[in-house]
Here is the input.
Amino acid sequence: MAVNMEVKIYNKEGAEAGTVTLNEAVFGLEPNPVLVHQYIVNYLANQRQGTASAKGRTDVAGGGAKPWRQKGTGRARAGTRRSPLWKGGGIIFGPEPRCYYKKFPRKMKRLALLSAFSDKARSEKLMVVDDLSMGEIKTKAVAVILDKLGLARQKCLILDEGKNDNLTMSVRNMQKVNYSRAPLANAYDIVNADVLLITKAGLEKIEEVFA
Here is the structure.
């Protein structure tokens, strides 16, 4: 399937401001959904804290003396109040703190990222904007820009060249908008977004780093 590697560049007003040709080494690969799935499973596993914990019979308070004598009461035998069968007793095979971290080969991680980029370009879910610099922290200003670009109701991942504090602070409470520095983008965030909104400088940085 032939992919059109030329995309339009828009300004903040939503008007066309030229075109740019995408680098085939980054955006022209054949997507590998199996590899991307492996990466996402690994990425989400590595986000887990692994702090879930429950007290076993040796951890709960109480115990010590035998609740009642072994025979002659007509009740079932009982050796401790910490038994998992009793209210307030320990938990049988409860969760314990553990580490879910697993390594993922660097070359596979890179290929998964390029596959995610290529899939967005192939499905025409990639948009380039000339600039997204902001003079102040203002969420409404970002919302207006996205509305003019036709992205108001879509999950959007914004990629810029470097650190953009005003933009980062402006989108942090927008449910469907995320921001990342272009060289630090990961395949999960790209796949999870409906549309990639990349600044012209961010696109150049992506091609410089990953091509």
Remarks:
- The beta strands are 6-10, 16-21, 126-129, 156-160, 177-181, 195-199.
- DSSP finds seven helices and six strands in the chain.
- The chain has a mean pLDDT of 91.
- Residues 53-99 form one domain.
